[in-house]
Amino acid sequence: MSGGAYIAVAPNTKLKIGKDTLWAWNINIQTGNHDFYDRSKFTGQDVVIGRNCWIGGNVSILPGVTLGDNVTVGANTVVTKSFPSNVVIAGCPAKVIRTLEI
Fold first, then answer.
1. Which of 4, 20, 44, 102 has the fewest beta carbons under 10 Å from its own?
2. Is 34 a catalytic residue?
3. Do 15 and 22 touch, CB atoms closer than 8 A?
């Protein structure tokens, strides 16, 4: 784990990170967020990151995301939805930019 990580696990949620996963500087992982309409409401969802993932610098992973095994997340990516194993994702919001042949 590199420095500058902000990891917030909201009440009644879980963050699961698989073996051999690593990440670069300034990542942001959150399992909770405010409601779009009523900011006084706070909701939470688990975040699951698979095995052998590589998360680049300045990445944000939002509540409810599941990343499969062997996922590479490009620098400055905002991950708003889940992705399967063996892909490279990047962008804002994240999208698959390559499938890995494993």
1. 102
2. yes
3. no
CA nearest to 90, candidates 62, 44, 56, 67? 56
Q: Is residue 47 part of a domain?
A: yes
Q: Is 1 within the bounds of a domain? A: no
pTM of the model: 0.93
Q: How many domains does the chain have?
A: 1
pLDDT digit string, tens, across residues 30-68: 999 998 899 999 899 999 999 999 999 999 999 999 999
Q: Please give the Cα distance from 8 to 35 (Å, whole number).
A: 17
Tell me which of 1, 16, 22, 34 is the catalytic residue.
34
CA distance 30 to 77: 14
Q: CA 18, CA 21: separation in Å to the nearest integer? A: 6
Provide the token pair at 23: 């990440």
Q: Is 67 in contact with 88 (CB distance < 8 Å)?
A: no
Q: Which domain holds residue 48?
A: 6-99
